[in-house]
Amino acid sequence: MTKLTTRQARKTLRYGTEEQKRAVLEELQELAGSDITSVLSWDDEGEISLRASADLAPGVRRTLKKVKVTPTTNGNQVEVEMHDKMSALRLLAKHHGLLDPGAEQNRPSVIGINMTGPAVTTYEVQDDPPLASGSDQGSEARAEDVGGEARGSGEGEHLHDTRD
After folding, report:
1. pTM of this prediction?
2. What is the rounded CA–CA span in Å between residue 65 and residue 126?
């Protein structure tokens, strides 16, 4: 099988023939189950040994993205990179319906909330006509008459409750 991009694999899984789908699923399962110890091993002392490519199974060879050998003064430096395992697992999970719950399953409900604030009380301030000089007693009496409480400054102002 030729190398496929994630987009091509997704498209093949959706629109390909049954044989193409089977081949892509096998490839994805090989990538998802890949293990670096199929390619190299190491011991307690940190000695790493790389398996010869002829000794690797064809499925294991396909999981390798890059093998790079760089000569150094201390010997060869070997870099092994494998294909992205998480992408393969994600595609497999999506294909098998593990990432797409049913239309009504596990979806949040939308709840309408109506909020009502406190009642609004409006007060109007009205000026009284000017009083004759020396009659402060009348101002105080009028201020007490409004709602049974003493309101106003006693200087010709009254507060009237305009609630219905």
Report:
1. 0.49
2. 86
**pLDDT tens by residue, 18-38:** 888 888 888 888 888 888 889
Are residue 77 and residue 141 in the same domain, yes or no? no
Are 28 and 59 spatial neighbours (Cβ–Cβ below 8 Å)? no
Query: Domains in the chain: how many in total?
Result: 3
Q: Residue 3 domain-assigned?
A: yes
Domain that holds residue 5: 1-34+84-101
CA distances from 2 to 12, 61, 105, 130 (A): 13, 13, 38, 101
Residue 22: burial class (beta carbons within 10 Å; 0-12, 13-18, 19+): exposed
